[in-house]
Design a protein that fits this description.
heterodimer; A: 185 residues; mainly alpha; disordered N terminus; B: 641 residues; mainly beta; 8-stranded antiparallel β-sheet; 39% strand
Chain lengths: 185, 641
């Protein structure tokens, strides 16, 4: 039986057990392929450095692979992996002695040749990034999980350890505040 | 996927997240598969490239302790040398090279190894893949091949590598095989035969060029943020200064490489951020165009765990009057700071000159065609000037119209338009992919699997070169008549500039903010070989937007400062500035589009500013004749009858 949300088959046992069951390992790889983008860009939005994001993404999936037998409820697999990713980034910031933040670094906004944005579009996006950077780290997490990781509210609630209703309410409150600030730009 | 409002989409774009490196997904998947294999087979551990690097560092530390730090720099200089592409190489053992390029072709796909440098600390290979077909579902194919290449020795040993870097080979070994279980961007290994190339190595000849590296005793200068602008963050520690340490310099045939780092003062816990493009000027105040040294490091900047930021700049030697002054805009972000944007920007500034007496002299600047004053006095194009303009309105709809904007007809909602030199083919990108209209018979063809980011026509209008999804490591040459596609390697997010007059070469530009800098290269379609041509001088840091003229002889590009245009002969001759109209009060500022017309004129437009509405201009660089075109919308292509 396969969980339609996580795309992974419920399993038990240890990582060593995976070797004995190639289908289970393949399920994990399938989950990895479907969720790599979400995890990577979620981490990149937090650490703002491609090499660091790659490193943390690797740690996240390898850790999930090693410890998946600890998760009893397979319905929560994706939220669990994002919780690992979030914890890895918190450890990362702790070691570096700084808080996660939207990094308003102008170098990020040098237009890519392929971006195809007009200068006024770029200016607007830079202004929006400035507004996001002024949010608290917790508020930024709501945006990262919803916009970048593309998690539904139910899974965001698991990662943030809140109720789904509370997460939804907070997210739309943040969004509304940003929108009104953006109109004043 | 969650449904998103337009505002949420804008928020998502504001993160400006760069695409994931295409090789990363493959590497990590291979790691996961390896992890599974380890549980079933538990092979003996093998040394990775990084293990060798760690060993080299330990050796370095031991050498330092043994002979004292004062002598270390001289010893290092003797050991390490710089080879463009290969980077810093350990010369404690004789260097070896590839005896000759080798290649293998299967079903139209070619794997070719062009170059190798074998040193005591690594084996570096430069190899390319040509002719891989572009699949209908690129995303699916990208996830297919996950295995890294490796070198296989005669005794069966496997030495895995990444990005062309492999562990060192024993000095007495003259042969090895390069094995690619599958090709990046193609099918997985279990569905295709393994690629294997036999490599033979020979001692490097005596004249093999290895550039000397000058390891410098640490010399520290300081950068201080703009005073008075720092916010009060209460209990948070505040980093107030940073150290600039120039660690090594390298002299190549035509450039100097400066390699160093900027770090918080000792005892501080903050991090240094380079927040904008550094400005480098020579003694006369002329801007220098710097590039990233090939092979020295993957990126021009590198954030280190201790909060330092490494940099490496390659500065041209020609026409530079030393000393040069480097101003690197940085922010010093304290540990625990919640809002980086509140911190002032500091200019990390230092001056450097090579330890050489003779310095080349700067040539006198030449007169340019267009200045701000010229724009103010130029007239509007006469009604007798006929042609077709292709442009996009504010709502993202493509139109074509007469040169005065009259008779506008809607093409489609989309972006990107390319018109063949003879006007017989019009290509554009829209929601359905690539559309090509043949003006002779009105036939419209659609290629839904091709979503071009960049495209240029061959001179005869028979082929269209396309840059597709930036994550897809291939470029495509499309024959619209037959629909056949030929792919070739992408190098480093290069921009397609145009074809040569005979249609045999495609000119490419490696962008300036990463990789090998603003390097112009040609790709020979027949032999599938790349050739490095020249670096662009004075190119715009934000995007030179290079375009090749219809006769294939000239390259035009946006320059620095903004509002300038240069043209350069593609035979490598000297670049000439034809427009110098930087932003001033009541004057246009940034140029957003640059186009060669079929009549060898340059069309360009200025981004509108409060004091200067959008304006589109037509310049003949041969006569400096300048006319304004009364067009609205964003110009995309232009053809003169």
């Amino acid at each position: 039986m396969q969980d339609a949300k996580s795309g992974i088959t419920p399993m038990a046992g240890t990582a060593e057990g995976l070797a004995a069951n190639p289908e289970m390992a393949e399920d994990f790889l399938q989950f990895y392929r479907e969720n790599l983008d979400g995890v990577y860009y979620f981490l990149l939005s937090r650490v703002r450095d491609a090499a660091d994001a790659e490193d943390l993404t690797s740690q996240t999936f390898l850790s999930a692979y090693e410890h998946q037998h600890r998760l009893r409820d397979r319905q929560k697999f994706r939220a669990w992996v994002f919780t690992i990713a979030r914890n890895k980034s918190v450890d990362f910031f702790r070691k570096r002695g700084r808080q996660p933040q939207a990094d308003l670094n102008e170098a990020w906004f040098l237009p890519d040749e392929s971006a195809g944005l007009s200068p006024d579009q770029q200016d607007r996006l830079i202004s929006l990034a400035g507004l996001v950077s002024r949010l608290s780290p917790r508020e930024q997490e709501y945006l990262q999980l919803r916009l970048i990781a593309q998690l539904p509210f139910a899974e965001m609630a698991r990662v943030l350890r809140k109720t789904e209703a509370s997460v939804k309410k907070t997210y739309y409150r943040i969004l509304g505040r940003l929108q009104s600030q953006a109109e004043e730009i | 996927m969650n449904q998103q409002t337009p505002f949420e989409k804008d928020l998502l774009r504001s993160y400006a997240l760069r695409p994931m490196h295409p090789g990363f997904a493959h590497r990590l998947e291979a790691q996961l598969m390896d992890r599974q294999n380890q549980y079933s087979a538990r092979p003996k551990p093998r040394l990775s490239v990084w293990a060798y690097a760690a060993a080299a560092l330990v050796l370095l530390a031991l050498v330092t302790l043994a002979i004292g730090p004062g002598k270390v720099y001289a010893q290092l200089r003797a050991i390490f040398g710089y080879v463009p592409g290969a980077g810093l190489v350990d010369r404690s053992l004789p260097l070896r090279l590839l005896k000759e390029p080798v290649s293998q072709t299967r079903e139209g796909v070619t794997l070719r190894v062009d170059e190798a440098v074998l040193s005591a600390d690594r084996t570096w290979l430069r190899y390319h893949i040509f002719g891989l077909p572009h699949p209908a579902d690129a995303a699916a194919a990208q996830g297919a091949c996950t295995q890294d290449p490796y070198l296989q020795l005669a005794d069966g040993t496997h030495l895995p590598g990444k990005a062309g870097i492999f562990p060192p080979l024993p000095q007495d070994l003259a042969n090895a095989s390069l094995i690619l279980p599958c090709l990046p961007g193609s099918q997985a290994a279990d569905t295709v035969p393994t690629w294997a190339l036999e490599l033979e190595f020979i001692p490097a000849p005596a004249d093999f060029k290895v550039h000397e590296v000058s390891f410098l005793a640490p010399e520290v200068t300081y950068a201080t943020p703009v005073p008075g602008a720092e916010p009060n963050f209460g209990h948070l520690p505040t980093t107030t200064q940073a150290e600039i340490v120039l660690e090594q310099t390298i002299r190549t045939d035509d450039a100097y490489i400066l390699d160093g780092l900027i770090r918080p003062l000792a005892g501080e816990t903050g991090a240094v951020k380079i927040v904008s493009v550094p400005v480098i000027r020579d003694q006369h105040g002329n801007y220098l165009i710097f590039t990233s040294p090939s092979g020295l490091r993957e990126n021009i900047y590198e954030a280190l765990p201790d909060g330092s930021m490494r940099f490496a700049f390659e500065l041209p030697m020609a026409n530079t009057v030393f000393p040069v002054t480097l101003e690197i805009p940085i922010k010093l972000v304290p540990a625990g700071a919640l809002d980086q944007s509140q911190f002032p920007t500091a200019a990390a500034t230092f001056t450097w000159a090579p330890d050489e007496a003779a310095q080349p002299q700067t040539e006198k600047p030449e007169l340019v065609c267009v200045l701000n004053e010229t724009l103010a006095s130029a007239g509007t194009a006469p009604k007798t000037l006929k042609g077709t303009a292709y442009w996009q309105d504010a709502a993202g709809i493509l139109y074509h119209s007469a040169l005065d904007g009259s008779g506008a007809e809607r093409l489609a909602p989309g972006s990107q338009v390319a018109v063949s030199v003879d006007g017989s083919q019009i290509a554009w990108a829209d929601a359905d992919g690539l559309s090509i209209l043949s003006t002779a018979d009105g036939q419209l063809k659609n290629f839904p699997t091709l979503q071009p980011m960049d495209m240029v026509w061959s001179p005869d209008g028979g082929r269209l070169a396309l840059a597709l999804d930036p994550n897809w490591p291939r470029r495509v040459i499309l024959d619209p008549a037959t629909g056949s596609q030929q792919s070739f390697d992408a190098l480093s997010q290069e921009r397609l500039a145009g074809f040569s007059a005979d249609g045999n070469l495609i000119y490419l530009l490696i962008p300036g903010t990463r990789g090998d800098g603003s390097l112009v290269m040609s790709f020979d379609i027949q032999s599938q070989t790349y050739q490095e041509l020249f670096y662009l001088n004075h190119r715009s840091a934000k995007g030179p937007k290079p375009v090749v003229s219809a006769d294939g002889n000239w390259l035009a590009y946006l320059g620095t400062p903004q509002g300038s245009i240069f043209i350069q002969p593609l035979d490598g001759g000297k670049a000439t500035q034809v427009v110098d109209a930087p932003g001033r009060f009541n004057a246009p500022s940034a140029i957003t589009k640059l186009i060669w017309t079929n009549t060898h004129q340059l069309a360009f437009d200025f981004y509108p500013a409060p004091q200067s509405p959008q304006s589109t201009w037509l310049l003949d660089p041969r006569t400096c004749a300048l006319q304004q075109l009364p067009l609205e919308g964003s110009l995309l292509a232009l053809r003169i009858d």
